[in-house]
Amino acid sequence: MDMASHPLPSGTRAYGPAQRARWTALAAEAAEANAFYAPDMLCAALDHLAGTPGVRIIEAQAGGELIGLLPVTVAARHGRLPLSCVTNWMHEHCFFGAPLIRRGAEMAAWRGLLAQLDNAHWAAGFLYLRGLDAAGANAAALEALCVEQRRGRREVHRYDRAMLRSDLDADAYWETHVRAKKRKEIRRLQKRLAELGAVEQRLLVDRAELPHWCADFLALEASGWKGREGSALACSPRDAAFFRAACAAAFDSGLLHFLRIDLDGRPIAMLANFRHGDGAFSFKIAFDEEMGRFSPGVLIELANLHAVQGDPAIGWMDSCAAPDHPMIDSLWAERRTIVQYRVALHGRGVGRIGRAAAFAIANGIEAIATHMKGQG
């Protein structure tokens, strides 16, 4: 099923209630959690961020049942190469790219998704998959299917990012994984901050407060370096609208995990997380840079540690952080390996030849660059 291939007109949606209900049912049975492709965030992104080039939703079905969903778009370039390819849609606020695949139907879902791309006249080059968990159900099923179908698959890149997954309670985790010197420094900062006024940590529970929390977050994020560089959510009306819509939908589904630290009623740090399945994804953090001497970013992450480890519904949290992040890497001990794959697309006639050539060219140039780098 194709979605809009042009900017969506104001006030319209690229899906209907029945479609969203199908996606919600699939998300509830997903083999691998991905809040960014679950309906709360995906529909908000389709409403506000799906411009040009167009986004298409590829669905796989078995016996009339939806078993797979993958948002894709066609990229005009592949890295530095002037090669068009199909890629899973990861807008700038999407930090995980695993498709929604029904648990137990992983191979069948991938078979259906790839078959549709093989047969799609608009599917250029190859499939470039980003943001997958190297140890996840999606990567394992994809590898097995590519072997079965003798379909080319090449790992393009991988990196590790911080993840929180532990049976320890928050205090034991903090004592076990954070250096004693750092723990002592944080206690000192907490004491100094408390000397300035009333410090309050809160988790959003009242729907009526949500608009105010969203406004506070957008203002707080824009007050710092992201605002000065133009990358804060509030710098773009579309991005801000996406954030508000995603938070509202997730709250109504019971899947928003929104924290803040206030000093005398004024926010100095906020953190928005989105849950899916038995896990959660840490989405955005904002803090008052003028309070930097108190490390508000670390303090909100400490509050988050207690909130997550104290919630039996959250088994793990993906930091969604860049690799080697200096702050979160020092607080969370576990790691998640994120990979990118280049997957060959089949087809018929000239189209098949062209796709095979694009896949071979991309692999060949990458091999030459790697060799030259090793010789340097």
UniProtKB/TrEMBL annotation:
Q: Where is the signal peptide?
A: none
Named from the GO MF annotations, one term is: acyltransferase activity
Q: What is its EC number?
A: 2.3.1.-
| Any Pfam family matching the protein | Acetyltransf_6
UniProt domain BioF2-like acetyltransferase: residue ranges = 180-301
- Decide whether keyword Methyltransferase is in the record: no
Which leading EC class covers this enzyme?
Answer: transferase
SUPFAM superfamilies registered for this protein in UniProt: Acyl-CoA N-acyltransferases (Nat)
Could you tell me the keywords of this UniProt record?
Acyltransferase, Transferase
Q: Note whether DNA-binding occurs among the keywords.
A: no
What is the designated name of this protein?
A: GNAT family N-acetyltransferase
**What is the originating organism of this protein?**
Sphingobium agri
